[in-house]
Design goal:
The structure holds two protein chains of two kinds. By secondary structure, chain A is mainly β. Chain A has no helices and eleven strands. In chain B, strands 2, 4, 5, 9, 10 and 11 form a six-stranded mixed β-sheet that branches. A five-stranded antiparallel β-sheet of chain B has the order 1-3-8-7-6, with no helix packed on it. The N and C termini of chain B lie far apart (about 35 Å). The chains are: A mainly beta, B mainly beta.
Chain lengths: ~120, ~110
Amino acid sequence: DTEVTQTPKHLVMGMTNKKSLKCEQHMGHRAMYWYKQKAKKPPELMFVYSYEKLSINESVPSRFSPECPNSSLLNLHLHALQPEDSALYLCASSQEGAGKRNTEAFFGQGTRLTVV
Amino acid sequence: RKEVEQDPGPFNVPEGATVAFNCTYSNSASQSFFWYRQDCRKEPKLLMSVYSSGNEDGRFTAQLNRASQYISLLIRDSKLSDSATYLCVVNMEVYGGSQGNLIFGKGTKLSVKP
C-alpha cells in the first residue's frame, strides 16, 4: 500500500464548483508534488513544494491553486475548471534532494477528477 | 527533441520471454534515473532506481550509460503479472542541489500472454 494518501479517490464537479484535493504523507519527506495525468499519457508536473514553499510552478492556470499547510499535507484547490481538466491528479513526495542522488518519488493513488 | 524518449511499444510477449526496454534522455545534467511501473488506472510505482554501475533486482536488470544518455531495463522470465506500462523517469536537480523535476517518458506498454 502507498504511504501517500490522497482524498477523494473520485470527484465529479461542475464548472462553477469549488473543491479541494488533499494529500498526506508521514514519511518525513520535505518535497511534495502535484502531477496531472491524462489517459494514455505520462504524468505531467504541475507544482513542487520544498520545505512547504512553492519551488516550481509549471505555468499552471490560476484555476488550480496549491497549498502546503505543513510538511505532511498538500492541497490542490480547484475553481472554475473546464471539462479538459478532467484527469487523474497524482500527489507524490520525496526526500529533499539537496546532496542526495536517486531521490525517488512515491505516489498516492490519485484522484480521478471529472469536470462536467 | 523530447527530454525522455522510450520505445513506443506495445510489447506483446509470451510468458517466460526476455524483454528489453530502452530509454534516452536529452539533458546531460540529469542526475537520477528510475524505472516506474504503472498498472491500468493506478498510480506509478517505483520499480527500481538505476545506477551507473548497473543494478539487478531478481528478474529485473537496469543499466545506465551516461556517455550515450541511455537507460535500459531487462526483464527475464516474464510473468503474466509483469503486464503494465513501464515509465522511464529522469530527475534533473535544480541548480543549487535542490530536488528537481521528475521527467517521465511516455511509457512502454508490456503485455505478457500465456
